[in-house]
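Sequence, structure tokens reproduced for absentees:
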Amino acid sequence: MLYSDKVMDHFSNPRNVGEIEDADGVGEIGNAKCGDIMKMYLKIDNNIITDAKFKTFGCGAAVATSSMATELIKGKSIDDALKLTNQAVVEALDGLPAVKIHCSVLAEQAVRSALSDYYTKQGIDPIPIVGEIKEPEE
């Protein structure tokens, strides 16, 4: 299985690892089949994601997709973050092996889960905005 240089870079030197103490939104998504778990922390100010951090327990591709997802949404509006697709994460990493595509789906779902938590904390029903967060399938 060959990984792109970008995947290897984000795995070896992941960006935005850690947690945000007073995060405005926290989302956790896991895949029972492969054992990957991603936790995403967002700091949101005036509808802009000012900071994003993650903690991922999983394979190299899971770490790389988490890292790339945080890079893609930092500094962006919530609306832009909601448009983040797993395909965009895969493309930003110059591709992933087919058996690892589920990792990019986890990254997308973790972002959505954190945004869902953010809306819930604001007293806003997140489902019409974010959609339902489903545990990803293999």
Summary: The chain has one domain: 5-125.
